Amino acid sequence: MTTTPAGLTLAIDLGKTSCRARVCRGGAQIAEGHGAGAPGLADHNGAELSFRAIADATAATGIDPRDYARIGIGAAGVEAGRDAARELIRIVRSRLADAPVAIINDALAAHAGAFGGGPGSILIAGTGAICFTVTEAGAVTQIDGWGPWLGDDGSGQWIGRHGLQAVLRAHDGRGPATLLTTDAAALAGSIAELPLWVAQRGSPARQLGRFAPTVIDRAAERDAVASGIVDEAARLLALTSVASGSGSVCVAGGLAGHPFFAARLREALTEAGLGEVIAQGDALHGAALVAATAELPHEGRVIRG
């Protein structure tokens, strides 16, 4: 394992689909590692599963954990699982590195990175969907982010779920034919096996989100069913952004990385009267900032230990 001088910051961006680790000295990046995500801190055994994802991504950096001076973690589920977040801090300090740990919601870490620790509104459109507005005084407003069963409108799991529901309706004769049927059958082995495919990995939201890129690709090919799903997802995300009360929003998350969907979402935001702000940095920048200082307006949502 490579060793480096002490004084390093470990930044973690832990989502439901993937986990990224970045090791920095000051503003200079030393190494990065990637791995699978975790269901979320609020889920059953959330702290342990989150730690396993963090440990795997951190090991991939090749840096000796004894060199970490501070650790910043942006993790899904912090808002609903604050006790689990404290347990995660205990596990990280006892089993990874005995360094100060700061944990914040992954979307707020993305916010801190996008605005350099300053105020503004950010829409995170990934497996889930959430919009956070942070003021200079530290007031934080959350719109959506209520999870796959109660919210996350327009998210990756929302798109994937509606895509598979459309396939099943077409299969039953309850809805129009769609190119998504062939895709779904290839994914699960057969249409009849779709329910098992969704449930078999222990994280239905993540499984459903895996089908979202296919729905978007088919929409780009002008499949009518897929196009309708994508248009509605963009409209719902724009509605979430409007509810923040801001005149502009920064857009981040996996869905924003798909060119076709990003363009459609931009159109929906414009139609809703919102401008788009370019991010200064990503969630890993935000996690590093949170680890380095307790003076950000986000501090009221940070758990330290």
Keywords:
Nucleotidyltransferase, domain 5; about 300 residues; single chain; disordered N terminus; 5-stranded mixed β-sheet; 6-stranded mixed β-sheet; 2 domains
List unreliable stretches of 5+ residues.
1-5
Total tally of structural domains: 2
SSE order, one letter for each helix or strand: EEEHEHEHEEEHHHHHHEHEHE
Task: Indicate the proportion of strand residues.
Answer: 15-25%
> Kindly state the mean pLDDT as a whole number?
91
- Helical content stands at 40-55%
Which descriptor suits the 3D outline?
globular
Structure description:
The relative contact order is 0.16. Residues 1-5 have low confidence and may be disordered. The strands form two sheets. This protein has a six-stranded mixed β-sheet with strand order 3-2-1-4-5-11, sandwiched between helices. With 305 residues, the chain is of the alpha/beta class. The longest helix is centred in the last third of the chain and has 19 residues, at 224-242. The chain is 41% helix and 21% strand. Strand 9, helix 10 (259-271) and strand 10 form a beta-alpha-beta unit. The radius of gyration is 20 Å and the shape is globular. Helix 8 (212-220) crosses helix 9. It folds into two domains: 8-116 and 281-304, Nucleotidyltransferase, domain 5 (2-Layer Sandwich); 156-277, ATPase, nucleotide binding domain (Nucleotidyltransferase, domain 5), CATH 3.30.420.40. The chain has helices at 46-59, 82-95, 106-114, 156-172, 180-188, 194-199, 204-209, 212-220, 224-242, 259-271, 283-292; strands spanning 8-14, 18-25, 28-36, 68-75, 101-105, 120-125, 129-134, 140-144, 248-252, 275-277, 303-304.
